[in-house]
Amino acid sequence: MNTNDKLWSKDFICITLCNLFIYLVFYYLLVTLPIYIIEHIAGGEIIAGMITTVFLFIAIIVRTLTPLWISRFGNKSILYAGLIVYLVSSVLYLFPTTGIGFLVVRMLHGIGFGLATATTGEFLTDIIPQSRKGEGIGFYTLSLNLAVVFGPFFGINAVRNLEKPYFFGIVILFSFLSIIMCVFLSNTEREQQPENPGVNSRDVFEKSAVRISIICAAFAIVYSSILSFIPVYALDIGLLHVSSYFFIVFAIVTIISRPFTGKWMDVYGANVIMYPSIILFALGILLLSLSYNSAIFLIAAALIGLGWGTLFPTFQTLAISKALPEKRGMAMATFLSIFELGIGIGSYIVGVVISIYSFQTVYLHGSVLVVMGGVLYWLLVHRKEA
């Protein structure tokens, strides 16, 4: 293999670990901050419902503008700025005593998150060799899968057992570690040549990434029902004692499969990976709707982990693969913004549907939506490439 095709460079390891710590904070607070606010703030139920929406809304706006700032100031400067804002806002969580105070800090935190995640994506596209793009993004995405498992795990234990300074102290620690990882990054070519003629103020979205990002957002609507409601569903069906193992099984299956699926995509193309992953994801959601014991519940977790855990990096790779080299960071930002919009919309829709019907109804129809998403992919991507 050509030495230029080296994947596991110092920069790749550092940016992946940086991303891990960023998302550990994200998922730690995603699960626990609403619980904390409801228990400690008067009228917290209303504020708790706004916490995630405000955070993601601000992050999406900031992320769409970040490529413009990167083109002017360079990757590393913007990454430092984002991580410092992320750390400062993590410290500020120690001080609010009202719901409005938490919302203000949450907005600031969203700014840091938007800057940091857009810039790590920019670094990633510069670091990974083109011949190993699928494999590299697959391993990078593992940092998100690990954060999905360990963020809520640490958070749920902390919110029940730790006082406020120690509860938010964990957030501060993870944010600080993300900055430490940034210190070891080399300057990329984008940093050394910050004036990027391919980016201008009228072009904050990468058009080549929009179509595949919208399709991924359709799947994300279903995924949001897993991310936000699995513990509540487990309680509803009497399986709360095994709910903590759901994401562990999810992560183990994803980690085991990732080295193979990333390489297969690089060799055989996205379609060979896409359709089996869609089928597995749909079967996992369907099985989840039928769960009545621990075995079925955890088998569903394995199928969902194998399906979604492969779908997401495949969509991510497709989103940046057609962009020009100088616009791949913008393509990554476009993809993440639209994906998170799907998560936000999905969480709201699922919450409304659950309040009227049942979890079984949500997951049963969710499996149908996954299949419809596969049809949408065939119509808008596969067929047009044939």
Automatic annotation (TrEMBL):
Compartments (UniProt record): Cell membrane
InterPro entries named in the record: MFS, MFS_dom, MFS_Exporter, MFS_trans_sf
Molecular function as annotated in GO: transmembrane transporter activity
TM regions (residue ranges): 12-38, 44-65, 77-95, 137-154, 166-188, 209-231, 237-256, 268-290, 296-320, 332-356, 362-381
A GO cellular component entry from the record: plasma membrane
The protein's name: MFS transporter
Keyword set includes Transmembrane helix: yes
Domain Major facilitator superfamily (MFS) profile span(s) in chain numbering: 11-385
Keywords recorded for this protein, A-Z: Membrane, Transmembrane, Transmembrane helix, Transport
Organism placement in taxonomy: Bacteria, Bacillati, Bacillota, Bacilli, Bacillales
